[in-house]
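Lecture 7 notes: from sequence to structure.

We start with a single chain of 349 residues. Read the sequence below before looking at the structure.
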Amino acid sequence: MAGDHLSAYHYFPLKWLESGVLMRHTAAMLELSNLSLSVSIQGERVDAVSAVSLRLAPGRVLGLVGESGCGKSLTAQAMLRLGEHQGVEKSSGDIRLDGKSLFDMSEEQLRTVRGGHIAMIFQEPMTALNPVFSIGSQICEVIRLHLDMNKQQAHQRAIDLLQDVGMQDVEQILKQYPDSLSGGMRQRVLIAMAMAADPDYIIADEPTTALDVSVQKRIIALLLNLQKKRNLGLLLVTHDFGLVAEMCDDVAVMYAGQIVESGSVAEIFDHPAHPYTRALMACRPEVSSPGKALPVISGQVPPPGRWPSGCHFAKRCPLAADDCNNPVAADAWSRENHVTRCLHVGEPS
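Now the structure, written as tokens:
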């Protein structure tokens, strides 16, 4: 994908071009617009995600990167309206799929969207798979929920899906239960389940965190192969900038519930503008000097309800000044395909 990072356009199936639809990658079909999500803390509702805007286009991979506690997973789960049963509520903004608001959809419509149009791969497969049902029954349930197939057809599709994700002896695996599989095999099962109904978009929430390094590389290669093969829009939620460089076309950097910088991967890596982005990239092992300790970002991500009134990163930022305590415009600095929420872009840190 690296060769496509600088392109503002992506090539889509000919039938889309014949329909007259302009296929610029910023005209995404899955879009978050100024989304704010609130949670209850000690009886008070506070924002945990603040005015987040993201666009996910077919055929492109968007990385959502930041430290733990920044709100990445909450944002990702909101794309399927998950978390509402745990008290997560929308404060403002919208999520639209093909121009239709997910918040206007009934439960029946949402069941069609979940898995059928947008699927999710969770970071911990043992909590995502039901331990008391076989692998085959769980995959076939997803298939029959979204596709008009009988048991025999669903079983054959389950076999095909497991083969597509590189598994062998699939008939035997379909009979097994999650606890009898390795971590890498369980993650492959989750990927197969995500692909079961041919969704348009995949949300991968830290999909390799619980896996060994060698297994991680195979899972990453598998995801990229499936994404290219099926022209999927893929949202990769991660804290790993190295993984973003390897997999993504575009990237959004999140801090304390806000998107602080976004743009193409090539632009962000070549010209990181926000102090938080630069600090995260400096922490990568591959850019550190041999024998020297990795740099760290002092302090911690402030929890919801304790965000500064201005820039959320101000208390940890080497460039912080008095004006950082005032509300900072989302486009305080921008150029084509690159937006940064910072008033002091370009100043040495």
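The CA atoms of residues 143 and 196 lie 6 Å apart. Keep this in mind for problem set 3.
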